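Human: I'm a chemist; would you kindly supply sequence and structure tokens for a protein?

Assistant:
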Amino acid sequence: MALSRRRRLPAADRALLDLRPGDRVLVEAHLSDGRWAVASRRALHLLEDGKVARVPWSEVDRGSLDPATRVLTVTWVWGGTSRLPFAQDSASVGFTQTFRERVQQSVVHAVPVTVPGGGKVRLALRRDEEGEIFTQVLGDAGVDVDDPVVSAALDVAEAEARDAVGLPR
């Protein structure tokens, strides 16, 4: 049985990547739909037809790999999803391991919060691509974070989260 050679990101496409100082490519994978997925230290890059979508890891909520289809479903913090269908099993395994590590690296601390009215949110302290820590709130569709009562509960949860990791309020 002949082994297929792993495809490498063409140099012209690599030149399109917006690698910032201190950034570097960790893993790349050719997708079965013709796109490329590239994980760098600071961001996820999706290349298609000479265009690059660059998303910092702190904007990725989570990912889930279906081992039968080799499709990684990426859930973004704004609620949308993207599907990354890997062309090869070895690429799916290697890429998703790095994907998971990079998303996890951006999370400093996360806590579930039940807000007044019964809604659920996840409050997370995350690192942006420069290493600065910020607060991210991901909630149910019905949660109104601008409601003063909800906002006050989130302020308390944020202060507790910051205290838990030794950050100033």
User: Anything to note?
Assistant: The beta strands are 25-30, 36-40, 43-48, 51-56, 60-66, 71-76, 81-85, 107-114, 120-127, 133-139.
